[in-house]
Design goal:
This protein is of the alpha+beta class. The chain has four helices and six strands. The chain has helices at 3-22, 44-47, 95-107, 146-162, and strands at residues 68-76, 83-91, 115-121, 126-132, 170-175, 178-179. A four-stranded mixed β-sheet has the order 3-4-5-6. The protein has a two-stranded antiparallel sheet with strand order 1-2. Strand 4 (126-132), helix 4 and strand 5 form a beta-alpha-beta unit. Helix 3 packs antiparallel against helix 4 (146-162). The termini are far apart.
């Protein structure tokens, strides 16, 4: 920077600051006639829809993680002879329902889909799973092979009775409230 610029730069900055301070008119003091506010002319920007002045968050808000518990799910083995345990983690507040859901997800097939509801009797330490077979289903419970029956009913029964957290002694299976007879 040369010496003239060095000399003038602070001085010019001081004049600008003083000019801005001098423009500040205290309230109630009139220093001349006021001019009417100019009416803005519509511009392309004014014709656009209004947008929020704040930016959206970069990341969606997430719900706080729920407390989870480990459970053991029982699944049919590849030879379709035994039920084998596998570890799973489910929400603590709905652990029984989540366990049934995971067993059902493992069983679901393209030609046999099921709806269900869970009825738990804590006093008797029982659970009834009431299945709903869609009216348009090609198959019914009696058409399930021995392997499919073990995969569905055996997996559910063992998963629910072998997890000590739920204290389930007996599992019943019904279809629309009627006991399933295979």
């Amino acid at each position: 920077m040369n010496s003239i610029q060095h000399f003038w730069t602070p001085w010019v900055a001081s004049l600008i600051v003083l000019g801005l301070v001098a423009c500040d008119i205290p309230p109630g003091e009139d220093r001349g006639a006021t001019l009417p506010e100019p009416t803005p002319t519509p511009t392309a920007a004014a014709l656009k829809p209004e947008r929020s002045p704040t930016r959206p968050p970069l990341k969606q808000a997430t719900t706080p993680p729920t407390e989870t518990v480990p459970i053991i799910l029982y699944k049919i083995d590849p030879s379709c002879q035994n039920l084998v345990p596998s570890q799973a983690v489910v929400p603590a507040s709905e652990s029984l329902e989540a366990a049934v859901g995971q067993v059902m997800d493992n069983f679901e097939s393209a030609d046999f889909s099921l709806g269900y509801r869970i009825i738990r009797d804590r006093d008797r330490q029982t659970v009834t799973i009431d299945f709903r077979v869609p009216a348009t289903a090609d198959r019914v419970f009696t058409s399930l092979s021995t392997c499919e029956q073990l995969a569905l009913f055996g997996s559910l029964r063992k998963t629910l009775t072998q997890n000590p957290t739920w204290l389930i002694q007996q599992v019943y299976f019904t279809q629309n409230g009627e006991e399933i007879a295979l």
